[in-house]
């Protein structure tokens, strides 16, 4: 099996596991003032912040991470000429 396929599948299962366990670990008085979710094809990237001012920083951090991952994928997976 392709190594990248196995890594991707493991990440998908890890994400589902985290989503299943997170409600069980929630604190009694947990509050989220702001939340957002960005979808990259079929991959959701969700975040929450206690203060509304942190929402723009979270969106900016998500955009930067996605741009870096895109550049890395272009550099590593382009065909040699």
Any overview of this molecule?
The protein is of the alpha+beta class. The chain has one domain (3-77). Helix content is 58%, strand content 17%. Strands 1-2 form a two-stranded antiparallel ribbon.
What sort of overall outline do the alpha carbons produce when their principal axes are compared? Answer: flat
Helix content: 55-70%
Distance between the termini: 26 Å
**Topology as a string of helices (H) and strands (E):** HEEH
Question: How many domains would you count in the coordinates?
Answer: 1
Q: What low-confidence regions span 5 or more consecutive residues with pLDDT below 50?
A: none
Strand content: 15-25%
Q: Walk across the major sheet and give the strand order.
A: 1-2
Tally of DSSP β-strands: 2
Count of helical stretches = 2
Which structural category fits the helices and strands?
alpha+beta
* Overall average pLDDT: 77
The gyration radius over C-alpha positions equals 16 Å
Q: How can the largest sheet be summarized?
A: 2 strands, antiparallel
Descriptive labels:
alpha+beta; two-stranded antiparallel sheet; 81 residues
Chain-wise SSE layout:
Layout: H1 3-25, E1 34-40, E2 43-49, H2 54-77
Antiparallel strand pairs: 1-2
Q: Could you provide a short overview of the structure?
A:
With 81 residues, this protein is an alpha+beta fold.
């Amino acid at each position: 099996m392709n190594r990248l396929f196995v890594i991707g599948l493991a990440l998908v299962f890890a994400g589902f596991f985290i989503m299943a366990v997170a409600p069980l670990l929630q604190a009694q008085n947990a509050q989220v003032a702001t939340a957002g979710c960005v979808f990259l094809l079929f991959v959701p990237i969700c975040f929450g912040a206690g203060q509304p001012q942190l929402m723009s920083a979270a969106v900016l951090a998500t955009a930067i991470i996605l741009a870096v991952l895109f550049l890395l994928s272009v550099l590593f997976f382009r065909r040699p000429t």
